[in-house]
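Sequence design from tokenized structure. All designs in this work follow the same two-part layout: the structure record, then the generated sequence. An example of the structure record is given first.
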């Protein structure tokens, strides 16, 4: 009389099949999680890029053409650009200060594009206020600004220049950014033709 039950070979085969199914299941879950994380990272980069580019378009296109005499005796035009930084005046977001004018400075630091904001003018408390710094974009490999406009010494044709410090706005501002998602070349035209 033979007792009913599983033989050792049947148990080993069942355990081996179960181990294979569990291993495949973990591999599928791990691959799914990696894919999810990669997709989420790409989405965050795309969202950060879109927010940064919207900020640049909105504020640079509405920069204010004013003389800035806060730096010294000789007033200079409020828009000053170099290949690595850009300074201009504009109204800040409403949640910062409604109706006030702020000095914005865009600059690169350790692969990060930052904007520094500070109230413009010489009110009593302005020297006591700290610059507010906001991270616009990170993971940047390279970035540079260029300016298209007429040089007072050569008024015939406008051309691209690496720096801008003239009493008018450039006709176009080029912002070249290279990051993990690719290369972007923004061209922004200030709406207000300061001094023209």
């Amino acid at each position: 009389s033979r007792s009913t039950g599983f033989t050792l070979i049947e148990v080993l085969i069942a355990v081996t099949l179960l181990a294979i199914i569990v291993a495949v299941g973990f591999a599928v879950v791990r691959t799914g999680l990696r894919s999810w994380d990669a997709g989420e990272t790409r989405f965050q980069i795309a969202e950060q890029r879109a927010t940064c580019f919207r900020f640049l378009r909105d504020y640079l296109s509405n920069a204010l053409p004013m003389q800035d005499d806060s730096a010294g005796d000789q007033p200079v035009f409020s828009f000053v650009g170099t290949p690595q930084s850009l300074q201009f005046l504009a109204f800040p977001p409403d949640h910062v200060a409604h109706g006030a004018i702020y000095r914005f400075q865009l600059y690169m630091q350790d692969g990060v594009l930052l904007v520094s904001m500070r109230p413009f003018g010489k009110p009593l408390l302005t020297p006591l206020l700290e610059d507010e710094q906001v991270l616009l974009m990170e993971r940047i490999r390279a970035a540079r600004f260029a300016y298209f406009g007429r040089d007072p010494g050569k008024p015939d044709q406008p051309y691209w220049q690496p720096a801008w410090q003239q009493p008018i706005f450039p006709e176009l501002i080029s912002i070249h950014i290279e990051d993990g998602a690719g290369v972007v070349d923004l061209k922004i035209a200030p709406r207000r033709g300061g001094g023209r």
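Residues 22 and 28 are 10 Å apart (CA to CA). We note this feature because it recurs in several other targets discussed in the main text.
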